[in-house]
Design a protein that fits this description.
5 helices; about 0% strand; elongated
């Protein structure tokens, strides 16, 4: 948003495009917030794993795909 507002439209589009893998994995894998919670857990936020019914935890395959996306985007180990 800051790039776009400051007139750096090409840079804003490039940044958005660089996040396509993240968007596709988080939004296309299963119902949110399941993948978001799984990603937060994989990033080390231990309390992020708990979900309330009717939501369930990510499956093993879903967690593997989220883990792979985090690794591809060099996000593992970057939490505060």
């Amino acid at each position: 948003v800051d790039l776009w507002r400051s007139g750096q439209e090409a840079e804003a589009r490039e940044l958005t495009a660089s996040l396509d893998d993240v968007y596709e994995t988080i939004n296309g894998l299963t119902t949110n917030p399941i993948p978001v919670k799984a990603a937060m857990h994989l990033l080390g936020f231990e309390s992020a794993q708990t979900l309330r019914l009717p939501l369930v935890e990510a499956t093993g395959m879903q967690r593997e795909r989220i883990q792979a996306m985090l690794e591809r985007n060099e996000l593992i180990g970057m939490h505060v």
